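quick one, 221 residues, struct below
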Amino acid sequence: MINIAIDGPAGAGKSSLSRLLAKKLEYIYVDTGALYRAVGLKFSRLGFDTNLSGDLDAVLADTKVDIRFIGGEQRVFLDSEDVSDDIRTPVASMMASAVSAKPAVRAFLLDMQRQLAKTNNVVMDGRDIGTVVLPDAKVKIFLTADVAVRAERRRKELAEKGQNLPFEEVLEDMKTRDYNDSHREIAPLKQADDAVLADTTNLSFDESLELLLSIVKDGTR
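---
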């Protein structure tokens, strides 16, 4: 199987670009961030805050997360409920960052991610795909952009969903998540030694997609 690992900070466009990249390559797209968001949503619904003080193992033992492909689109299910839209909120983002720092949560989701990669050609995105989840991936890409550019992209994305937040608030949330993701003890966000850096600060969405396609083409020759 050919595995393509795409890592990078929040708001870099990993999900949207990886989804289209997979479609063009006719690969399976695996949005690992959505898995962590789903787990984070579960804890949030149970009243946990980002400190996650409590019995995490007990919650995970009673949690089921599935990725299903319906009409060619990835949908995320939490305990049999489709939460694909519910996990795309600022609260879910912050909870995803919090739970992803917990070894128990990472172990809970790791086998699912690796099994998908063993049995399919995949484009998998996240924070530690090239460094931890799929260290032997055929192609590794570290996708990034200036934090202000990423924050504005996320603000527009949220506005399209009816969530009109001030740019300054989105920017501060982005900076906080960047710090948390890159400073956590377990599998921190970082560029793998053999990953290709793709900076899309000054690129349009279409130009960014073309850049990824060229990197994949070079890496799979």
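The chain has a mean pLDDT of 92.
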